[in-house]
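Re: the 195-residue chain
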Amino acid sequence: MMSAKRLCLSAILLLAAVMPAYAHVGIGTTSSFMAGFMHPLSGLDHMTVMIAVGLWAALKGGKAVWAWPAAFVGVMLVGGGLGMLHMPLPFVEPGILASVVALGLLVALAVDLPVSAGVAIIGLFALFHGHAHGTEVPENAGGLEYMAGFAIATVLLHATGIAAGLGLGVRFRGLARAAGAACAAVGVGLVFGVL
């Protein structure tokens, strides 16, 4: 029980140490692999959503363990391409904020949806995340290095969520759900500008 408390405390401290969300067009350097790789690690919105996808996939199990993260990364890259082409997408920022709250709640409540429904939900949110970052790529940069870095960091964060969810197993399933509740709380804090 003590190691579970330490794990929870460590996760809270890690989330508290992360820089504020930067899911806004035009913020930061966006023309290199390293900039793309560091971007998901630079804000609470990115970290919580990516880890929540992995946690939710682990709670669901089966095909969801690979299908949900793969859907996120694939649709995120499509959204990034649309953003780089300057194709408008409404509600990008609200969609990103909604993803933090919604995915946190899906984990906290251990919502058991069919894999295809999870793909649809995750894909919608991934489109917003990808589009926001595709629009950040400068006109004079191809953006492929940036998107490759962003995709790899996203995969690693999904893997972290999956590993945590599977590692906690059935016995500590409540901790994974508590992490989902923390994600939703972060989302509410971002919506109201508290974080």
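The mean pLDDT is 85.
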